[in-house]
Amino acid sequence: MSVADIAVIGGTGFYSFLEDYEERTVETPYGAPSAPIAVGTVAGRQVAFLPRHGAHHEHPPHAIPYRANLWALRSLGVRQVLAPCAVGGLRPEVAPGDIVVPDQLVDRTYRRIPSYVETGAVHLPFGDPYCDRLSAAVAASEPGIKSGGAMVIVEGPRFSTRAESRSYAGEGWTLINMTGHPEAALAREMRQCYSAIALVTDMDAGAESGEGVGQDEVFALFKANLERLTGILSRTIATIPDPDGCSCSTWADGIDLTYDIP
Ligand SMILES: [Zn+2]
What is the CATH number of the domain that holds 228? Predict the structure, then answer.
């Protein structure tokens, strides 16, 4: 019997989602998740909420317990993960205040453990890193949402230099963030559907002529858009597709996984 079928992993500025909830403290083989997990009901569905950076933003992007987070959610029964995050814009197609559902990611992190696989030949299919069915449900939840584009994930916690930022934009990548990897890959290893919901809080350093991004503007913009984001999440949950048969789960059929899925 699953405790929750759907999870929301809240990003910077997004520390609570459920009005009425019960808290679950979960231990995992990978240590404790970022925070106790809140479980409640949204649109008649059992939903788990986990603040990615901890309840008081104590985990910086490079030190988030990513493996514990996805394992803990799966252990509660979660098969679909909605992952809001704050991002910088790299290209003029996006502007602060936009909500974008990316369809690709580029991993530029270098000191995180990006997999549950520690032995044997298990190679995750990741050509399309996000669940297209879940992403389509998010995109359909509000007319203003933009779909598509690549999100580059950098190690952080520092912001980019102008040269880095221009180079990423020159590659044609649209968004930049510090947490989208390995979260998306770990979710798929846990056979979960995963969709990123990116709120553009600022333009990255090389993408505008000003001072570049500052922490205050990121938090302020997230705060201003929190209500819109929770509406998108609630409407998505109300119409979320059935995860049965999705390739996010079936990729592992017939494969001897060398790690446990709770
Ligand atoms: Zn899926």
Answer: 3.40.50.1580
